[in-house]
């Protein structure tokens, strides 16, 4: 059960310029994954930005497979440690899921795409 109510969760997402804090709020159950998805979609639409896409991807993984969510967080963390990247294509996402984020899945994906 999430600890923060809707108002508090909304404040968190609007006041924090650090997507990894949003991810950690979901990981520690301070905010439910579904609530965070809805808040991030709202913010993404309101500001017409893709900025929250990585958080949404992470939360979707948290709902289905927490271990895969952790792999996603580790592999798609941007170098500035404040934001989270996302998949460029559905093919990239499918390759990540199929390989469970293990091994050289991205290189294999790029090789397969390059052969088309």
Notes on the protein architecture:
The chain has 116 residues and is mainly α. It contains seven helices and no strands. α1 crosses α3 (33-47). It is globular, with a radius of gyration of 15 Å. The termini are far apart.
Descriptive tags:
single chain; 116 residues; mainly alpha; 7 helices; 66% helix; globular
Shape: globular
- Written as H for each helix and E for each strand, in order along the chain, the element string is HHHHHHH
Helix content: 55-70%
Backbone structural class: mainly alpha
**Please, how many helices?**
7
Summarize the structure.
With 116 residues, the protein is an all-alpha fold. The chain is 66% helix and 0% strand.
Fold blueprint:
Blueprint: H1 6-15, H2 19-27, H3 33-47, H4 53-64, H5 66-76, H6 90-99, H7 105-114
Helix pairs in contact: 1-3, 2-4, 3-4, 4-5, 6-7
């Amino acid at each position: 059960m999430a600890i923060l109510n809707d108002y508090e969760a909304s404040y968190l997402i609007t006041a924090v310029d650090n997507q990894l804090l949003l991810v950690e709020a979901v990981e520690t159950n301070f905010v439910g994954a579904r609530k965070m998805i809805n808040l991030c979609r709202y913010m993404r639409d309101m500001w017409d930005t893709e900025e929250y896409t990585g958080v949404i991807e992470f939360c979707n993984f948290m709902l289905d497979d927490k271990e895969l969510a952790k792999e996603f967080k580790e592999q798609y963390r941007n170098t500035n440690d404040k934001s989270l990247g996302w998949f460029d294509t559905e093919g990239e996402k499918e390759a990540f899921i199929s390989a469970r984020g293990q091994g050289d899945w991205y290189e294999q994906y790029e090789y397969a795409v390059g052969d088309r």
